[in-house]
Amino acid sequence: MRLTHALVPTLKEAPADATSVSHTLLLRAGYIRRVGAGIYSYLPLGVRVLRNVERIVREEMDKAGALEVLLPALLPADYFRETGRWHLFGDNLLRLKDRKGSDYHLGPTHEEIITDMARREVHSYRDLPKNLYQVQTKFRDEPRPRGGLLRCREFTMKDAYSFDVDEERAKLSYEKMRVAYTRIFDRMGLSYRMVSADSGAMGGSGSAEFQVLVQSGEDFIAACGHCDYAANLEVAVTAEPPPAATQNKDGAPEKVHTPKAGTIEKVSAFLGASPDVFLKSLIYLAGEEVVMAVVCGNDEINEVKLAKALGVGEVVLASPDDVWRATGAKVGFAGPVGFKGKLLVDRAAKALPLGISGANETDYHFKNVQPGRDFEGEIVDIRSVRAGDPCPNCADGKLEVYRGIEAGHIFLLGTHYSEKMGATFLDDSGETKPVVMGCYGIGVSRLVATAVEQFNDANGILWPASLAPYQVAIVQLGSEPEVITAVAEVEAALEARGISVLVDDREERPGVKFKDADLVGIPLRVTIGKKSLERGGVELKPRTETDPKKAELVAVEKAPQTIADRVAALAKSLEPK
RNA sequence: CGGGGCGUAGCGCAGUUUGGUAGCGCGCACGGUUCGGGUCCGUGAGGUCGGCAGUUCGAAUCUGCCCGCCCCGACCA
Fold first, then answer.
1. Nearest nucleotide by C1' position to the A203 CA atom
2. Which ipTM value was assigned to this complex?
3. Under a CB-based contact definition with an 8 Å cutoff, are residues A393 and A225 in contact?
4. How far is it between the farthest Cα atoms of chain A?
5. Fewest CB within a 10 Å sphere: which of A243, A365, A465, A528?
6. Which stretch of DSSP H or E encloses residue A179?
7. Contacts of A535 by beta carbon, 8 Å cutoff, 6+ apart
8. Is A398:A95 a contact under the CB 8 Å cutoff?
9. Read out DSSP for A463-481?
10. CA distance A39 to A560
11. pTM (predicted TM-score)
12. Which nucleotide is nearest to A413 (CA to C1')?
C-alpha cells in the first residue's frame, strides 16, 4: 500500500479530550476517530489491527474446538425477560421500541440468546459437549465511557458459551478455554496474569480474569512473586495474621477529647499515635440493616468482601445522617465500643493489642481499646490486601499489587441460565437434565487499545508483529529514479512473499516521514534514499531500536530475503510456548 | 446519578471579566526555498462563535432553557 493512496491522517497535536496513552496515540496515528461518547470509527489502519486481533482469537477458538456462530445484536425483550435481566441490567441496557411499540434492546451479552439456541437444537447427551462462539458488536450504555477504545458503549467482543452434561465435563470445557486464552494473549505478546475474580451476580462456581499488566489499568490485582497465586484486589486474600501479641486483661478504654479531629490523619497527629493502631470504623448499609465494619487504621475496607461476609449483593457507605442515627456522633467519631448494631471486625484489627477508636460521641475518641475485652464482633476478612502481605498460597511469597486492564473473563455458569430457560437434554439413562454452561469473553476492541497501552514510547506505538497493520514500513526519501526503482523492487518482492508493506511515498521531508513512521508503529522500518543507496543499499531498523545510527545496511538485491527473515523471526518470537 | 470543567476554522487555543460585528499556531491550497528526525518565506481558502429564546441600537461576550463532550466519584454480566 502506498501512503499517497491510503488514508492515514496523522495529527501533530492530540485532540483535547484524549487522556489515556492508547486513546491519544490511536487518534494521532490515524487509527480511530470519535463519533460520540464511547463510540468510535475505525480508519483503515484501525480496521487492520482489529482484524488481526479477531484472526488470532478465531484461530485459537477454532483450534480449541469451538464453533463460530453469529447472533443478532438487535434483540426482542422476551429473552432477557425470561431470566429477569431485562430489569437487572437497568440503565446499562440500550433499549428501543419498534414501530408497533414493542420492546427491544441491543445485546450487551448473549447468554439468553445462545441458551435459546441450545434449548432448540440440543436434545440429547449425544449432542454434547458444544462450545459456540461469536465475534460481534456489543452495546452497553456505560454510565461513563472513557479511555477511547478501553471502555466504549459500542465495542467488539468475542463471546463463547460451552454446554456440557455435568459439572465435571463443564470444567474440562472451561480448562480448554483457559488454555486457548493463554495462547491468544501470548500470541499478542502481552504481559498478563490470570487472576481469580469476583463472579459477581452471575452466580457461577468459578471465574478468572485475564488482566493485562499496565500502569494505566483501572483494576488492581494482587499477585505472589513466588507462586502463581493472583487475584483481583476485590477478592484477594492474605495469610492468617498472627494472634494478638498481648492480652491485657485489666484496664479500660480511656476517653480523650479530640476536637474537630474526624479523620485518622488528624487524630493520629493530635494524639501523636501511629495510624496503624487505629480501629477504623465505618458505617455501611446492607439493604435495610446498618452495620459497622472495623479494620486497622492503615487498611482499606474491601466492600466486595464485606458484602460477601454479610451475604448481600452490595453494601453502601452510610450517609452522614445515617451515621448520626447509628452512633449519635458526627462522621469521624464512630467506634465499636458500645455500638449496638451489627459489628464486623477484620481479623487483622482483632489482632491489635490496644487501639484507638471513635467514642460514638462527637469530638471524642477512646484510647486503650482492646478487641475482645471492650467489644465483641464477628471476626471476618474484610480488608483489601496490601503490597508486602504474605501470600495465602505459599510459605515464602509476598504479594505485589499491580494495575491491570481486564481483557478476558471466563466463567463457570452452572445451570443458572439453562434452568431458567429450560435448556435441557436427555442423559444416557433417559433422564431430563439442564445443560451445564460456561461463558468466556474477550474484549476484542479493548485489546487493540490495551496493546497500545503496553507497547508505546515517547514517539508512538510499537505494535507486536502479530497485531501490526502492516508488517513492514518503507520510508522513501527523495524521488530520484534510482530511489523509486529500489523502493518498487523491494516492495514488490516483499508482497510476492506475502508480506504486507506500507510505503511512505509522500513528498514530505525526511523528518516528517520518520516521525509518522514512529507514530504509526509498524515493527520493521526500511529506509530507502539516495544516501542509503550510495552507502550500498537499504537501511533496516526495528521500531524498538530508537537509535537511527544502529540501522542495518542491506544490499537492495538481498533486502527482500533479509527482511522476510526478520519478519519471520518477529512472528516466531510471539509463538505460544 | 453526585461533583468539577469545557464547547470559537479540520486540530490545538486566545478573545467573554468591561457588549461595538472574530484572531493566533498547526494543518489545507498555490508560489518560491529547503531536503536523513515535524525547513523557511510569501499569498490564499476556510467560522450558523454548540442550539433556541430573551435583554440591547448592537451579543462569541449579558440572562434563561436545552444539547453535546471531558475529568473525579458512584457504576461496570
1. B77
2. 0.95
3. no
4. 97
5. A243
6. helix A167-187
7. A553
8. no
9. --TTT-SSSEEEEEE---H
10. 40
11. 0.93
12. B77
